[in-house]
Write a structure and sequence with these properties.
The complex is a heterodimer. Chain A is α/β, with parallel strands linked by helices. Chain A contains ten helices and nine strands. Chain B is an alpha/beta fold. In chain B, helix 1 packs parallel to helix 9 and helix 7 runs parallel beside helix 9. Classes of the chains: A alpha/beta, B alpha/beta.
């Protein structure tokens, strides 16, 4: 990026009208990927100068235990519903989860899920890191996930969405294929990096379960309706224009796996899975297919 | 600003948790819990009895629902007190009519100030849980240890003196505890706390205390007051929860099932309003008729769970 410039120079403007044709495998018009965030939040993280990890003095019992629900209860509830409708996960992983609760990570491996890095912990922020520190967390992520899953990670969602001006350049240098940190489009597009190449795959804040429940205050049924409407529209646009769209469903088990939400969510997945325009894919497959067509 | 050099070192990065309160355990592979008479879903109604002094305190933090305007905040003082004068009596009638026994997490000050309310709660067979002194009695690690010990001791002794009951359970204001709280509660002889929301069944802390998770997402404060859903929306969420848990209890692809628990937290000044109480009454009647439902106070659920450990 152009550091300190008003326009960070991440990408060129490209109008949504008259985009190049892109067909997903099997003539599908909307690639749907599900991104469970498998996270570990530290109970007593160091408090840096940029962002306070917890609103309360440590231990923040509700904040900590709320997220711990994923790793004791709701991960399996969420994962089972995804598997039932044939959706693999592309996991945004706090890589220290491989050390703390390896069984959660192993469950994703067993289901054929892809893993990418969401930092070491979701309580360690990249703001203010020097280059050595940032290289350290990238290399740590690559090594830790390879050891736990056998996969060389290809994607990045910054820990707690915290970045430095050099993050994207470093990802390209380390041969990452995609970033999930930019929300400017409904299609895969290149990001400008200092060397090599890096794609931006649409993740989503708007249909992220965190936004749905904790920002917009939706019920589980309202959130499920949003997912259905988001999919229906993107599938229809991909069909009409011939330029395949991408829909991401970013999840947190402690939110979507709550007993009052998981049933409606299952109905949304049932709807999307049954639509012949849906390509159920992992993030890496979507980026690879797009890249091959460039 | 730069970060300290050791910002990318992680002293607690190892298998298990980064603390010693309790051990990791995944719910779906535990030995199945079973509830009395073959019921599969324990439904726990937990009502908060809160007295908000009109002189709020911010140390260690101001309780949710506390005073908002400059002093004197008649508006919030009286709106909150409406729950204790009117709303809770509607709830007591609704529980009685459906044959439901609940838990009442009670500020010691409520027991002292409104003895006829406590008498009615106990006469109807409900459980009293300790819930601090009053809504200024908040806890975090910023509270000095001697003050925290005194606060908990004061809460328990005043509640016991006013109600004649020695509570088995403890619920902190806003579920907020310090590093020390769990040990102080165990030392004081409490059987359980309901502050940690990481599970859907009781589990034991290393120090012997049981945590009975009181899901904050399913509280009327979260759904009705914060997310601003209607009570019909709230009731729908309770029914969706019940249906999911009852199905999960039978076993699924990932679990052999076993008893599940649905905690429903109620606040008299929220759910006890004339236009809202009807939804609670209907839900109580509905759940009381469900063949999978075991509606019980927290202490009974903990006791039943303990016999199976």
């Amino acid at each position: 990026m152009r550091e300190n410039a008003p326009d960070p120079g991440l990408y060129d403007y490209q109008a949504y009208r008259d985009r190049p044709k892109l067909q997903w495998p099997g003539g599908k018009t909307c690639a749907v990927w599900v991104a469970p965030n498998l996270e570990y939040y530290e109970i007593n993280p160091p408090v840096g100068p940029h962002r306070k990890p917890w609103p309360k003095a440590h231990p923040d019992v509700v904040g900590y235990s709320y997220r711990d629900h994923s790793n004791r209860v709701s991960h399996w509830r969420m994962a089972d519903v995804m598997s039932r409708y044939g959706f693999p996960g592309s996991v945004s992983l706090s890589v220290a989860l491989c050390d703390h609760h390896p069984e959660v990570v192993a469950d994703g491996v067993k289901r054929g899920w892809e893993f990418f890095s969401h930092g070491i912990y979701n309580t360690r922020y990249s703001y203010g890191m020097d280059e050595a520190q940032e290289r350290h967390i990238i290399e740590d992520s690559i090594e830790t996930v390879e050891r736990a899953t056998g996969q060389r990670i290809r994607g990045w969602l910054a820990p707690a969405l915290t970045h430095t001006p050099r993050t994207l350049d470093l990802l390209a240098e380390y041969d990452f294929a995609y970033t999930c940190d930019l929300y400017h489009d409904d299609q895969v597009l290149d990001v400008k990096v200092a060397s090599g190449q890096l794609a931006s795959i649409p993740y989503s804040l708007e249909v992220n379960d965190h936004y749905g429940f904790n920002v917009y205050g939706m019920s589980g049924r309202e959130y499920a309706d949003c997912l259905i409407q988001q999919f229906d529209r993107l599938a229809q646009e991909g069909e009409r224009t011939g330029a395949g769209t991408v829909m991401c469903i970013p999840l947190h088990a402690y939110l979507i796996g709550q007993p009052h939400r998981i049933g409606p969510f299952e109905e949304a997945l049932r709807h999307i899975a049954a639509d012949p325009r849906c390509w159920k894919a992992r993030a890496g497959e979507i980026v690879d297919h797009w890249r091959a067509a460039q | 600003m730069t970060l300290p050099e050791d910002y990318t070192t992680y002293p607690h990065r190892a298998e298990g948790y980064d603390h010693q309160f309790y051990e990791w355990s995944k719910m779906h592979t535990r030995a199945p819990a079973s509830w009395p008479d073959g019921k599969s879903v324990a439904v726990w109604f937990c009502v908060s009895l809160e007295w908000f002094p009109i002189t709020p305190e911010d140390k260690p933090f101001r309780a949710p629902g506390h005073m908002v305007t400059p002093y004197p905040d008649y508006r919030h003082y009286t709106v909150r007190d409406y729950g204790n004068r009117v709303g809770v009596w509607r709830m007591l009638d609704a529980f009685k009519s459906a044959g439901v026994k609940a838990s009442f997490a009670t500020n010691a000050a409520v027991a002292e100030r409104y003895p006829e309310l406590i008498e009615a709660v106990l006469a109807d067979g409900h459980e009293i849980i300790a819930h601090s002194t009053d809504m200024n009695g908040t806890i975090t690690s910023d509270l000095p240890e001697d003050e925290e010990r005194a606060l908990i001791a004061d809460s328990l002794s005043r509640l016991e003196a006013a109600s004649g009951v020695k509570p088995k359970g403890w619920h902190s204001i806003a579920r907020s505890q310090s590093w020390r709280t769990a040990d102080i509660l165990a030392e004081r002889g409490l059987a359980y706390t309901c502050d940690w929301v990481n599970d859907e069944l009781p589990y034991r802390f290393q120090n012997g205390l049981v945590n009975l998770p009181l899901n904050t997402e399913l509280s009327d404060r979260m759904i009705v007051a914060t997310q601003q859903h209607s009570t019909q929306g709230w009731a729908q969420m309770m029914r969706d929860s019940f249906d999911w848990l009852a199905a999960e209890a039978k076993g699924t692809d990932y679990t052999q099932g076993g008893g599940r628990m649905l905690p429903i937290q109620l606040t008299p000044y929220i759910m006890g309003l004339p236009y809202r109480i009807g939804a609670l009454e209907e839900l109580l009647e509905d759940f009381a008729k469900r063949e999978e439902a075991w509606i019980a106070p927290g202490a009974d659920i903990v006791a039943e769970w303990e016999t199976q450990q």
